Amino acid sequence: MPLINGLHHVTALASDPQQNIDFYAGILGLRLVKKTINFDAPDVYHFYYGNEAGSPGTILTFFPYGGLVRGRHGKGQLTTTSFSIPSESLGYWTERLKKFNVPFQQPQERMNEGFIYFEDHDGLGIELIANNKDERPGFSYGNVEEKHSIKGFHSVTLSEDGYEKTAGLLTVYMEHKKVAEQGNRFRYSASGKVGDMVDVVCEPDRLRGLQGAGTVHHLAFSTSTDETIVQMQQKLLKAGVHATNVLDRQYFHSIYFREPGGILFEVATNPPGFAIDEEPAHLGEKLKLPSWEEPNRPMIESGLKPIILDWKKFI
User: Fold this and answer.
1) Would you state the pLDDT for residue 280?
2) 137 has which bridge partners?
3) For 224-237, what is each residue's pLDDT tens digit?
4) Count of CA atoms in the C-beta half-sphere (13 A) of 287
5) What residues contact 116, with CB distance under 8 A and at least 6 apart?
6) Domain region containing 310
7) What gap in Å lies between CA 105 and CA 97, rounded to an integer?
8) Which of 200, 194, 160 is nearest to 178 (CA)?
9) What are phi and psi of 272, to 5 degrees?
10) Could you read off the pLDDT of 202-219 as tens digits, one per residue?
11) Per-residue CA distances from 260 to 91, 103, 162, 182, 197 (Å)
12) Average pLDDT, the chain
């Protein structure tokens, strides 16, 4: 059994929680699969967006800290999260972004795939990459035409001084292979499939990134079981990589460590998944708390800004 299957999720920092929901569930049409709290800061929401089931490789999550100052994109960060869309859907998405006044760069091509780049209200870098290789079903509440809906991740972009050390971690210890390169961009994947691509871009002259709203907090990779995450942890520790103990994140179990360029990596188990405390048809509808915070629910709820999921405004 492989220790690493591909990408699991990306977690970013945001400012206003309602703007965050409006952008990702409203404009982009992703499903809000879980509404919970930051387990390390229970006065802050934790939103999870993905496909209908909340499958690994589709999940973008946010910690929305009200009033958080914008960060700066730069090296030592995951600078762009790229989603996969059908090959004929670029035109649909450029028109949709125009409709909701989202600035975007004109379509470009990279590695024989067309894409558009834009940023959310906090400045988080997003791409939509058109391709005909992704067999996953998309999801839409009905605000995005189903045939054009987002299928999940395509890839992520890491900005680094150089690619060699990060590539060494990915290939020697995390079961990735180099699958493509173009200029200063080197692409790695554990599965070889759309949705599991990690692009390492060499940008030695770029300023280092600063964490804040609109920046990525960490990148998580997928592992199959509680047994494989322990095996991965031990493999990293033997290599001299400081990996944390296995932590219970309710919907998966995780370890954390930093790659050579300074980006925080996580390895997360696929089970138990998001249906552990909600029926699949009702994911994301209620505020879910871990068992140890349930006694504090009244205090936690009173401190959180109320939010509304109203996707019909974005048809």
Assistant:
1) 96
2) none
3) 999 999 999 999 99
4) 21
5) 90, 93, 94, 97, 104, 105, 106, 107, 108, 127, 128
6) 6-314
7) 11
8) 200
9) -80, -15
10) 999 999 999 999 999 999
11) 39, 34, 10, 22, 19
12) 97
1 lies in a domain?
no
Phi first, then psi, for residue 104 (nearest 5°) are -150, 160
Q: How far is 231 from 226, CA to CA, in rounded Å?
A: 9
Q: What share of the chain is helix, strand, coil (3-state, %, to 5)?
A: 20, 35, 40
**pLDDT tier for residue 1 given thresholds of 50, 70 and 90:** confident
How many independent structural domains does the chain possess? 1
CATH number at residue 304: 3.10.180.10
Instruction: Supply 142's token pair.
Output: 């009905």
Tokens, residue 298: 């009244």
Residue 123 has pLDDT above 90, yes or no: yes
Q: Using one digit for the tens of pLDDT, what is the confidence trace for 70-117? A: 999 999 999 999 999 999 999 999 999 999 999 999 999 999 999 999
Among 220, 139, 132, smallest CA distance to 174 is for 220
Q: Which residues neighbour 237 within 8 Å (Cβ) at sequence distance 6 or greater?
A: 243
